[in-house]
Amino acid sequence: MGHRDLPSPNSCGYFILLVLMHLIILASASIHDYQDESFIRRSNSFFFHGGSEGLYASKLDSGNDKSSSEDKPLNGKSFIRFESIIFRRTRESTEKKNEMQQRTGLVEAIVLEVRDREKIGGSYLNSVAICCTPELSKDGSCKVGEVIIQQNPDNPDGPKRIQTFFEGKNEEANMDIQTIEINSTGMYYLYFMFCDPELVGTLISGRTVWRNPDGYLPGKMSPLMTFFGLMSVAYLVLGLFWFLRFLQYWKDIIQLHYHISAVIGLGMCEMALWYFEYANFNSTGSRPMGITIWAVTFSAVKKTVSRLLLLVVSMGYGVLRPTLGGITSKVLLLGVIYFAASEALELVEHLGNINDFSGKARLFLVLPVALLDACFILWIFSSLSKTLEKLQIRRSMAKLELYRKFTNFLAVTVLLSVAWIGYELYFNATDPLSELWRRAWIIPAFWTLLAYLLLVVICVLWAPSHNPTGYAYSEETADDFDGEAISLTGSGVKVAGGDLAAKLERKERKASSAADHHVFGLAEDLEEDKRE
């Protein structure tokens, strides 16, 4: 698990600094396992961060009893339970103790809500102290060797402590199984702490179980389960609409329609897998690696294929050119690299104990994905610009109008993305301690919803129909769109006289001036039409 410090009334700098170092995502599971974890020093204390989650208050009123027994029903309960916690000190520390002495070391478990952070610690002569010193104990507010907790008589739900003592020369101390019921909604932090310097080198093993009233899913993540469920239904509705259109106009299907179908199918699988992964997490308190890997992989594949779809549509694939020509290998290479980078980032975010990763480690994985996204955006808009230019030259008005609508919506999407990135940076900067955790789910949800809306627009613009000439590929516009394979100054365009799309294209060109037709090598076609 990660490590965070505790603040004093005069200075929360240590607390905020350490929280920022690990504020990547909340713990990946509500069952927090510790395996020989060590304590680190801060001020005059030693601590280990045992976890942090947003917890809702219990739905059932249990009065003033802050602990619930094991046999009480879990439904409606919100709690933190300590199970099989073992503290193991060094042999050198043990040899310094007297075997006849009953208590030879103290480790405390501190549970506090983030808004109560200033109640931990104290100060004396302008020095910050987390553990009680002889000077601070003179007024009777704390006991020497214990963590300072400034209790508020008017708020009994303030920071709570559970003490575990080493006895005699025992190297191990077992923490009693205890459950702290949560009666106030908030962001909770758990710290294991000791003040005795002779306990340096002590290790902790065991686990704690965190539960919300409706399940084990952390409060910051619980709204996402409902969101993924709704998005699964949304993709199902879109898939049903697309499938019916696909069947209705199956004779007019072009290659691009199969690519759109693949993205819809991947989206349905992705949302369903995330929903079931979160539902399993909520019911068991852990995230099975198998389900998570499948969900992460489908997510990475869907993101990659979606970006490739936008790119090839912008290039006019299936509409203005039958193949990508010489740039196929470059498009595939970019897709493979993006999939690898996205898969690595998703695995780090959703597998294992994420709090172990520092900000630099996460930044190392985020930067490649961000740079590749920038490459996709630049390539997409560059291709769109060239496509629109060629369509204007060719006077292909139906295709031109289609691509103008697509370009406008894509531009709006990019602007919304930039604005949302700014909001996300502002949100994280103004909430370093996750006090707004109940609203944090909208950050990832926005990107999922935006991707869905963009897919809906593509489905509407390129929906199968009886009159596919507005977007179907025709040989008349097939030249000069592949800059690497076809010269822009080629000879006259071939016309398949029996092709319906080609005839409609000639009808559009009749409205243009004879000079324009001559410039583009179509004067002979126009004269032939007139003679007919």
Account of the 3D structure:
Strands 1, 4, 9, 10 and 12 form a 5-stranded antiparallel sheet that branches. Strands 2-3-11-5-8 form a 5-stranded antiparallel sheet, with no helix packed on it. 45% of the residues lie in helices and 15% in strands. The protein folds into 2 domains: 29-59 and 75-211, Sandwich (Jelly Rolls), CATH 2.60.120; 219-473, Rhopdopsin 7-helix transmembrane proteins (Up-down Bundle). The model is unreliable at 1-29, 62-72, 353-359 and 475-532 (pLDDT under 50). The protein has 532 residues and is an alpha+beta fold. The protein has helices at 13-22, 91-95, 222-248, 255-284, 289-314, 328-350, 359-394, 397-430, 442-461, 500-510, 514-519, 523-531, and strands spanning 31-38, 40-42, 45-55, 79-88, 105-113, 122-124, 127-129, 160-166, 172-174, 178-181, 186-194, 203-211. β2 and β3 form a beta hairpin.
Keywords:
single chain; 532 residues; alpha+beta; Jelly Rolls; Rhopdopsin 7-helix transmembrane proteins; 5-stranded antiparallel β-sheet; 12 helices; elongated; disordered N terminus
Task: Please provide a brief summary of the model.
Mean pLDDT is 78; it is low at 1-29, 62-72, 353-359 and 475-532. β2 and β3 (45-55) form a beta hairpin. The N and C termini lie far apart (81 Å).
